[in-house]
Amino acid sequence: MFSRWNWVACGFYLVLNICSPDASSGLVQSCGHIIPESPVLALGSNFTALCILNESCLDFGNIYASQIIWKIKNRLVPKEQYREINRTVSSVTFNDTSALATPLTCNILADGQIEQNIYGITVTVGLPPEKPKNLSCIVHQVARFTYVMTCTWNPGRHTFLDTQFKLRYSWPEEIFPDCIPKDVNNSCTITDIQFFVNTEIWVEATNALGKAESDHLVIDPIDIVKPLSPQNVSVSSGVLPTVLKLFWENWISDAVMKLKFNIRYRIVGDTNWMEVPSEDTASPRTSFGVQGLRPYTEYVFSIRCMKEDGEGYWSDWSEEKTGITTEDQPSKGPPIWRIIDTSHSPASWTVHLMWKALKPFEANGVILQYEVTVRDKSSLSSPVKKYNVTSTNHTLQLPEGTYEVTLIARNSVGASPPSVLLIPASNSKAPVKNLRTLPKHDKLWVGWTAPNNYVLKYVIEWCLVSSKSDCNIEWQIALGDVKGIDLKGIKPFKCYLITVYPLYADGQGSGQSVKAYLKQDRPSKGPTVQTKKVGKAEAVLTWNHLTVEEQNGFIRNYTILYKTIDGNETVVTVDPSKTEYTLSSLTSDTLYTVRMMASTDNGSRTGPDFTFTTQKFGKGEIEAIVVPVCLAFLLIVLLGVLFCFNKRDLIKKHIWPIVPDPSKSNIAQWSPQVPAKHNFNSKDQMYPEGSFTDVSVVEIEADDKKSFSEQDLKPFDLLKKEKSTSEGHSSGIGGSSCMSSPRQSVSDSDEGETTQNTSSTVQYSTVVLNGYRDQTPLQVFSRSESTQPLLDSEERSEDHSGGADSTAQRQQYFRQNGGQDETNTDRPCFERTKQITHAGEGDLVGFVQLQISGQSSQPLGLGMEKNTQEAALSSVLQTCTEGQTVRPETVEENPLSVDEMPKSYLPQTVRQGGYMPQ
Amino acid sequence: MAAADSPSAALRRDLCSRGIRLAGKMRADVVDLLDAYVEQQGLDASASVAAVEGVPLAAVERWDEQTGTQRLLENLAAYRAFRALLAQMLEEQREQLGEADAGLGRALAAVLLQVSAFAYHLEELLRLESRGIPGAEEDGPPPPPRLSLFEQKLRGLGVLRELAQWAVRSVRDLRQLAKPGPATGAAPGLAESP
């Protein structure tokens, strides 16, 4: 029973202790503690901690040192580092404190492996302070009587601990309060500084791991003073134009510290300082006269000071003060040069004198005016001319000659030495040799080799070459012993023309020129190329030179790049002086793209692309083809013409059948109104030769059928066949026409045999039915194709033909007119008949009279109207066959006078031209 | 010459040089302080002040006949007295004005430091002379009687005036000591009038 209560009390006690580990001195006592308590450890050192259990816990909690486990920030420390010293003490050892962390706890592994914390400590790891190094001090003067001393040092490595630095200083018998740095660890400022006593100064660094002290610095603060710079500096000009006097005040009395000074000065606008020699200002003073200055020049001054013996530091430079020296007479004459304009008249010069304003250090004041004196050296008697000029140029009109021009500049103090310029009649002396240029940073150096003769000076002219404006000449004079000068103000990428003239004592040498660039760049644009001429395998390219503004440098070469659309680019380099180039070996009828590149020493620029297409044929190829062809054609034509000429009759018959001229027909003279006017007496007059060259009059004997051979009938057979296969324009009229035109039919048949017969084809025919010779035959026209009044029989036949046929005939007529030539020979006879019919209505063209002997006088046309086409054809054949015996002689044998002609308006065609009125 | 080359001679020369400059600066500072003191205390700059008790007078007869040791001892006694008097003045100044006129207090403190520094120089020189340094108490002035405020101001004026004069004398004394020659302690100084 007792044992049970004992365990309960022990457990309660243990829980209280464990739950309140920090209450060892409080209400509840802890079961143990760690030694050392919250140590500060050196980084890298070894460390051993002890956990000591209270005896009371041993009794009540039944816990021992063997149950202790150590933890670093909840990480178990390996048990190899534990050591059980006795039943209540356990130690843990760390060979390197860098492995430590906070907190380090001592814990008990109680029954049931329950881990209970006994105690914990905070471990701080760091480094002891290093010895401060490089201690140095400086005393700053902050006011007239106020000095502060600032000492700085190197605090050394970081200690990871709170490390305090303090600056200590003392006299042998007096120790001053320490100087504690604020916010920094490497400097401190002491305010109560006393001079002339050696003061011992050192730095102490202290932290939890130790203390370090710097080397002691023993120094009199007066020896490390940086005084304030002199104040109230003023500058006054003296009597001399080369002297300025400076005045100032010092912050430190001589009793405290004697000072020495530095005085620096520069010309206003110049950045380079000059200094008064230090030995001149090595003693205490409050003023100094600076000598050797330029007259009429504004200077800037500044002063600084330090302890006379050189101990300590220089003060800062004082504020800058300016002063101007007084004027002096100009030290030299202005450089003078001239431009002679002889454009108006070679014998009369326009001399532009020009001179440069003196530089400030040469003018030594304000130049009030220039005095120009011109003396004619070629004429001793001529007076000296003087001009007072306020500008820097003057123009004179002088006759050609040798002149001496003298120029003097004046200011308020005096005149400059004269500048003399000799203007000789001609510049025939030796020029400079080997003129060359060389860029030097932003200047362009111009060098030359001197002529053999002694040269007084050189004049260097230069101007910016421009394509838009004239060369604006600038110039400069160099002494005779100079072999080169630097030209200033030269712009990069611009072309300059530089000319050098040597001036001799007795004349002037001719100028030598050179073009130069200060700096080159690639051209600003490329050349624009185009073709001048394009051939089959070559193309002439042309381009313009780039303007000098576009060149940006010397054009070293042009490069032509050309290619086909899918081909490789070909590159050709061209001399820069050329503006034309011929590309050869090109492919014909091909599109080429060409561009051009201009190159300077510093790069290239390509111009726009240009395309062209080579020609398909070369020069002369077309001519070589066309000319022979034309010649051949002409030859053929010629041969054809010759052939046609030779065969003109034949062709004429085929192409241009002779159409009788109705106006010349004597039927016109038959007009009933003027019958007496017809003259039929002369056959030649009525039928001139050629009018009816091949008119055949066939006299057909009615009973002479048998005289026709089979050969003669063939054409009719052919006609018959054609009729049978034709389109069937078988009208009564047509049939009637053919029937009434046996003459024509015969002619057609003749055409198939001889060309002579072809030409005898006539459009109009008159069928004449012969009676007996001594009888007037009964004249019956199968149809009338004349415009003349119709015969009764014709009128009757027309009455029978009906209006419909008449309309059809009229239509055919109009079609006929369009192709008259063709119809003359080949057209079926019925068509021609229609034509005649219509022509007869208005204008009588002509007739062919066909006399058919022994034939019935029945109108053929009427009969044909009633027949079918074939029947009509057969009738034609029959009629034509019957009419083949017609002879012209028959007509001639029966000439009739006009008076004897019956007024039947029946023209008769006779061979050898004549109508035979019946 | 041998003495001039020894470290002690160099140290003596350095101490003399530094003491001369310190005395010169001290005089300049005291003169400036006098002006500020007269103005701040409302005194007349031309007011005559009786000799301050406990302060040896700078003026001395047969000055050029004094030995170097005598000069050093008189200077040391004087500056120890000034050190005590200035410390008292500084205390009285703080009591009267508090922090109202910190400038004057700082100037007084600076002069006090200079006086201390000069006394240190003198002690070092005496050591080089192989002479014993008298104790501070024996040469120090007796405790001053309790004075009225005006009397304190007049006394302060007298202290500063006498200190200025002593500064001038000290410069001359040290220059005399700095001159190379036989033992400074025995022979009288060369004919150099102060």
In this structure, how is the largest beta sheet of chain A organized?
A: 5 strands, antiparallel
Q: Major β-sheet of chain B, in short?
A: none
**What is the total tally of β strands of chain B?**
0
- As for the CATH topology of the domain at 227-325 in chain A, it is Immunoglobulin-like
Oligomer: heterodimer
Number of helices of chain B: 6
Computed over alpha carbons, the radius of gyration of chain B is 17 Å
The general outline of chain B is elongated
Ranges of chain A where pLDDT stays below 50 over 5 or more residues in a row are: 1-27, 674-786, 789-918
Q: Helical stretch count of chain A?
A: 17
Estimated helix fraction of chain B: 55-70%
User: What's the average pLDDT of chain B?
Assistant: 79
CATH homology-level superfamily of the domain at 227-325 in chain A: Immunoglobulins
Calculate Rg of chain A over CA atoms.
72 Å
Termini separation of chain A comes to 196 Å
Q: So what's the CATH class of the domain at 10-45 and 52-132 and 168-178 in chain B? A: Mainly Alpha
Shape-level CATH architecture of the domain at 10-45 and 52-132 and 168-178 in chain B: Up-down Bundle
The outline of chain A comes out as: flat
Helix residue percentage of chain A: 10-25%
How much of the residues of chain A is beta strand, in percent?
25-35%
CATH class of the domain at 227-325 in chain A: Mainly Beta
